[in-house]
Fold this protein.
Amino acid sequence: MGAYVITGGSKLSGKLKVQGSKNASLPIIAATILNCNKSHIKNVPDIKDVHVMIDILTRLGADINFSGNELTIDTSKVNSWEVPENLMRKMRSSIILMGSLLGRFGKAKVSYPGGCEIGPRPIDLHLKGFAALGVKIKESHGFIYAETEKLKGANIHLDFPSVGATENLMLAAVLAEGRTVIRNAAKEPEIVNLQNFLNKMGCRIKGAGTDTIKIEGCSIDDLKPIEDYTVIPDRIAAGTYLAATAATRGNIVLENVIIEHIEPVLAKLREMGCSIKSKDDKVELWVDGPLKALDSLRTLPYPGFPTDMQAPMMALLSTAEGTSIITETVFENRFKHAEELRRMGADIKINGNTAIVKGVRKLTGAAVEAKDLRAGAALVIAGLAAEGKTVVEGISYIERGYERFAENLRTLGAKIENLD
Ligand code: EPZ
């Protein structure tokens, strides 16, 4: 699985260009299936999850070239609607392929997405939405078979503003007959990015970024190749580097950020006592005095505080003065990093979906293990702030979502080495 060896105590400093967004890239790669043509996409992060999606589309018949963060995908020869089970299991978010396979072929066969380290992560909202669009769903022996004669536009109300369900239903609805309205839709920036990509392809979608998205169905002949599309920067990667800088009391400038997308995180870092200056696509963070605890940190759907930043912030709050209360409202079981942080001397008590984090003067290096992508980033942050050496096992989780993570941190002055 590989590990990082971190020697704590160096203050991060310098400049870093933020990678393209993992969570914007994955649905956009799925969307390329719809136009049976070429798509050229820029600023795609070179991370494991993108390579899994590339492997899946290649197995379905696509011709793909990926180099220098530029992705060229030709889906004209895609001739299968069955997602290979072994690849599906590698990444649960490959469920996003259902929508575009249904749009292109009227059918899809996927295996039940592997459970995830952060909770059961059901897909009932996806399947209920597909059924509303006229899709027959059959589940047997761990596979989901979805089929329809013709996708028909529908009014869909999501019980929860699920990011994946919103994206999947957009992908299925663009080629449906008539209009689809998705209410209580997720409002994340990655949804807006997907709408912009699909509209550039010739689809007619409005409302992404609000809780109501309207999709006018069109025909596959209306869809065009995508000459050039640039993926938005990764707001969670940006937040992670800022939290790491705050934890080491350092000073960095991040480039290629969209300030509005990271505002929820900047607000909490300021509340802790970080100094932050932003201009155009740059943000600078430095720490002058002691960092204070947060009376309340509550994860919520966008534009609330992002659940993906909960673990990195828990690591940072472990070194702040005072007691912070973290409430995780999006996932059921997203505190697994707490027990690993305790091994480093953090004082954290978990009570259901609430974590009580009492800041300590210093964390101490230890051998710890990443259990999911963002938990892994949190352990690295704790290791950078800790006294002594930390070994973080399970870094393949981290490499799923962070491009050149250890290399970037080294550029910023961190003492972090790969242990193969
Ligand atoms: C996306 O996951 C992101 N992944 C996650 O990022 C992110 O944490 C999450 O949205 C919330 O922002 C990608 O975009 C690839 P959801 P997704 O559907 O779509 C429940 C990372 O670290 N739910 O919004 O799976 C679900 O159990 C990853 O980059 C249902 O009950 O998230 C969860 O409790 C982790 N039924 C909540 O909704 C459903 O049918 C939010 O899930 C679907 C979801």
